[in-house]
C-alpha cells in the first residue's frame, strides 16, 4: 500500500528511546524515526505530534498515576539500597548505584527542560533530513511539539478532520497512524476515513532482547467486521451511525477521562456484552443513540438520552449477575493462590526462569557499563539477583490475594446497597438519592464531553468528572431532566499542569518545575499545599493488585491553582517563560516544493506580509502565518541550496 501521510504519536516513541541517560539516546531516537519513515514511505506529509497540555479530566488520571508511582518509587529505591548493603556484607558485589537509574516519567511532560530539548532535537532532525535525504524532498513535515495544547493522538485527528473539511481535499488520501494506544483505533474509526491504517508494534516475548514486529491494522476492514457484529437481524441500519454508537458504548468501559461502569471490565468481555445488549435493545430504543450531524450543538442534542436510558435499563438487568459471577471467580482464584499446591507451582515457575512482571520492574533498567563490557559475570549475576529480589518483594506486597490483604467488598453479594454508604458516607435514602442524581448528571456530561472530543473538538479544557467512582447502570434514570452544556475556555499552561499533577517529593519537583513554582508545593503557607499530600489512601476497589487501586487525592481546584501560580510568574526567567507559553504547529518544507511557491506562501515572506493567510490546495489547507523564529526565511528563497521553511498552521482558525 502506498501511503500519502504518516502521523506519529511521539510520546510512546519518546518513552521507549529515553529510558536511560547516555550519549547515544538521540542517535537511537533519530534511527527509530528513520525506521518508521522507511517502513511506511509517505509521499506527502509527516506529522509529528508530541503530547501537550491535557484537558483537566485527563490531569485527574495523570495525578493519580504520578502520586502512586512516586510512592512506589520511593519505597522500591529504599529497599534496593538496603538490599545492596546486605549483598555487599555477604561478599556479593553489585553494580554501583550510578550505573543504573530509576526512570522518572515526569520529565517527559510539557514544560520541562527535557521536552524543550526534544522539541529542538526534532526540529534539527526535520531540517537535516529535508536538506540531505532524497526520500524527503517532496515531504512536508508538521511538528506539533509539547507546547501545542492537546494529546498527541487528538491533535493528529483534529488535523485530519480539518483537512477533510477543506473544499479541495483529496478523498483518496491514504493515512497511516503509528501508535500502540487502543484509543487511536477508536479515533481512527471516528474519522470515517476510507483509507486509514494504524501501524502497531508488538514485542517478541521470547529472548532477552525483544525484536519488534510491525503490523498494519486496516481500519476499513475493522469497520466491516464491526458492521457484521453490530447489525440487528432483519433491521436496515446505517453503518456510519453504527460505528458512532459502537465508539460511544465503549466509553462505558472506562478510559483516561471517566471511570468505568462498575459491572464492566474489558478482560471480562465487556465489549461483547455491550454489543449484545445494543443489538437486542436497538428496536426498543427506536434508533441510534448518537447523531454526529448535531455534534456542534452546545446543549448535547447529539446524544439521544431517551434511547440511552433504555440501553442502560437493559444493561442493568445483567449487572447483579455480573458482580455475583465476578465474586465467585475471585473466590475460586483466591483459594487456589492460597493453597499449598499453588505456592509450590509458583516456586517451580521461578526455577524455570519464567518471567514475572510487577510494577517495581517498571522503574529498573540495566545500563551497559564497563563491568558488563569486561564480561564480569559474577557482578552482573549479583545485580540481576538484587533486582529480582526487589521485584519479588514489591510484587508480593502489590498482590492482595497473595499477602492476604484482599478486600472483596465491591463484589460481595449485596454490594450495590452498600456502595453509597461505604464509598461516600451517605446514610439516608435522601442522601443516597441526591448523590445518585449528581453522579449520573456528571457522568452523562462526561459521555457528551468525550463525544465532542472524538468527533469535533475539546468542548471545555477544565471540565472533569468530580468523583472517584462511576454510578451503576441501574442508576441512569430520568436522564431528560439534565441540561448538558460546557464552558468554553482555554487549556492550562504547561507549568500549571505540572503543578496540578506532580507529587510533593522534592526529587520529582526539582527535575520538572522551576524553583519558584516548586516552592509553592512544600510551603505550609501556600494556597495549594493541601492539594499535595504525602500520605493518601489507595482504595483497591475490588482489584487484585494494589497498584491498580484508586488514589483518593483531593481534586484539582483550578481557581486556587491559578491564583497561586500567578503570584510567582514574575520570577520566571526568559527561558522558563518560553517553556510555559503555548505555541502553534509548524510546517517545514523545501523551497523546491510546489506548495512553497504558491502565491499565498510567497506573499507571507514579502515585506508587507499579512499576519494570516488562507491556503487550500489538494495537498494541505488552513490558515498559515509566518513563524517569527524564521526571520531569515525570505533570504533562504534566494539561495540555490534547498532549505526547509518553518511556518505556523493556526489550529484555532482552521475550519
UniProtKB/TrEMBL annotation:
One of its GO terms (molecular function) is 5'-3' RNA exonuclease activity. The keyword Nuclease applies. One of its GO terms (cellular component) is nucleus. Residues 3-201 form the Xrn1 N-terminal domain. PANTHER family: 5'-3' EXORIBONUCLEASE, 5'->3' EXORIBONUCLEASE. Possesses 5'->3' exoribonuclease activity. Acts as an endogenous post-transcriptional gene silencing (PTGS) suppressor. This is 5'-3' exoribonuclease. It comes from Aegilops tauschii subsp. strangulata.
Amino acid at each position: 500500500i502506498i501511503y500519502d501521510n504518516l502521523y506519529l504519536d511521539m510520546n510512546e516513541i519518546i518513552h521507549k528511546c529515553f529510558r536511560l541517560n547516555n550519549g547515544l539516546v538521540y542517535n537511537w531516537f533519530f534511527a527509530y524515526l528513520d525506521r518508521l519513515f522507511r517502513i511506511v514511505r509517505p509521499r506527502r506529509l509527516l506529522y509529528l505530534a508530541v503530547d501537550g497540555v491535557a484537558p483537566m479530566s485527563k490531569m485527574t488520571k495523570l495525578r493519580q498515576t504520578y502520586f502512586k508511582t512516586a510512592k512506589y518509587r520511593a519505597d522500591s529505591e529504599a529497599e534496593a539500597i538496603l538490599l545492596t548493603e546486605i549483598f555487599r556484607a555477604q561478599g556479593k558485589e553489585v553494580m554501583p548505584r550510578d550505573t543504573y537509574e530509576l526512570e522518572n516519567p515526569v520529565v517527559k511532560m510539557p514544560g520541562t527542560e527535557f521536552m524543550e530539548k526534544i522539541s529542538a532535537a526534532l526540529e534539527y532532525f526535520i531540517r537535516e533530513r529535508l536538506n540531505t535525504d532524497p526520500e524527503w524532498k517532496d515531504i512536508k513535515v508538521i511538528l506539533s511539539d509539547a507546547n501545542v495544547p492537546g494529546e498527541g493522538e487528538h491533535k493528529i485527528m483534529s488535523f485530519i478532520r480539518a483537512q477533510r473539511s477543506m473544499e479541495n481535499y483529496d478523498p483518496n488520501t491514504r493515512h497511516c497512524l503509528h501508535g500502540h494506544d487502543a484509543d487511536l483505533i477508536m479515533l481512527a474509526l471516528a474519522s470515517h476515513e476510507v483509507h486509514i491504517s494504524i501501524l502497531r508494534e508488538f514485542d517478541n516475548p521470547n529472548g532477552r532482547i525483544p525484536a519488534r514486529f510491525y503490523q498494519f491494522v486496516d481500519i476499513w476492514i475493522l469497520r466491516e467486521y464491526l458492521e457484521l457484529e453490530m447489525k440487528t437481524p432483519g433491521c436496515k441500519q446505517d453503518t456510519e451511525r453504527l460505528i458512532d454508537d459502537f465508539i460511544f458504548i465503549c466509553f462505558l468501559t472506562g478510559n483516561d477521562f471517566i471511570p468505568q461502569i462498575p459491572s464492566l471490565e474489558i478482560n471480562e468481555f465487556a465489549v461483547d456484552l455491550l454489543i449484545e445488549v445494543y443489538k437486542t435493545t436497538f428496536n426498543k430504543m427506536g434508533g441510534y443513540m448518537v447523531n454526529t450531524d448535531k455534534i456542534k450543538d452546545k446543549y448535547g442534542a447529539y446524544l439521544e438520552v431517551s434511547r440511552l436510558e433504555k440501553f442502560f435499563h437493559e444493561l442493568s438487568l445483567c449487572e447483579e449477575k455480573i458482580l455475583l459471577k465476578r465474586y465467585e471467580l475471585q473466590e475460586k482464584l483466591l483459594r487456589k493462590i492460597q493453597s499449598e499446591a499453588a505456592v509450590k507451582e509458583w516456586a517451580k515457575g521461578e526455577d524455570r526462569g519464567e518471567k514475572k512482571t510487577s510494577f517495581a520492574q517498571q522503574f529498573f533498567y540495566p545500563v551497559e557499563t564497563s563491568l558488563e563490557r569486561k564480561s564480569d559475570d559474577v557482578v552482573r549475576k549479583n545485580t540481576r539477583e538484587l533486582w529480582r529480589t526487589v521485584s519479588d518483594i514489591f510484587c508480593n506486597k502489590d498482590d492482595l490475594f497473595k499477602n492476604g490483604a484482599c478486600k472483596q467488598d465491591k463484589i460481595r453479594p449485596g454490594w450495590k446497597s452498600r456502595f453509597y454508604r461505604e464509598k461516600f458516607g451517605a446514610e439516608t435514602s435522601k442522601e443516597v438519592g441526591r448523590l445518585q442524581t449528581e453522579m449520573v448528571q456528571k457522568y452523562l456530561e462526561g459521555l457528551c464531553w468525550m463525544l465532542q472530543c472524538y468527533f469535533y473538538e475539546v468542548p471545555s479544557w477544565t471540565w472533569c468528572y468530580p468523583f472517584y467512582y462511576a454510578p451503576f447502570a441501574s442508576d441512569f434514570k430520568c436522564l431528560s431532566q439534565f441540561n448538558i452544556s460546557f464552558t468554553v475556555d482555554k487549556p492550562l499552561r504547561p507549568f500549571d499542569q505540572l503543578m496540578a499533577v506532580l507529587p510533593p517529593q522534592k526529587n520529582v519537583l526539582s527535575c520538572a518545575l522551576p524553583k519558584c513554582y516548586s516552592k509553592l508545593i512544600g510551603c505550609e503557607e501556600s494556597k495549594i499545599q493541601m492539594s499535595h499530600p504525602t500520605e493518601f489512601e489507595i482504595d483497591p476497589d475490588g482489584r487484585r493488585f494494589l497498584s491498580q487501586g484508586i488514589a483518593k487525592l483531593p481534586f484539582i481546584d483550578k481557581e486556587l491553582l491559578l491564583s497561586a501560580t500567578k503570584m510567582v510568574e514574575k520570577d520566571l526567567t526568559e527561558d522558563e517563560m518560553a517553556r510555559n507559553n503555548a505555541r502553534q504547529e509548524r510546517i517545514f518544507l523545501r523551497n523546491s516544493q510546489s506548495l512553497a511557491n504558491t502565491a499565498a506562501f510567497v506573499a507571507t515572506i514579502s515585506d508587507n506580509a499579512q499576519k494570516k493567510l488562507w491556503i487550500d490546495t489538494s495537498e494541505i489547507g488552513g490558515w498559515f502565518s509566518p513563524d517569527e523564529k524564521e526571520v531569515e526565511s525570505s533570504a533562504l528563497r534566494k539561495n540555490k541550496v534547498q532549505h526547509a521553511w518553518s511556518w505556523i498552521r493556526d489550529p484555532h482558525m482552521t475550519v
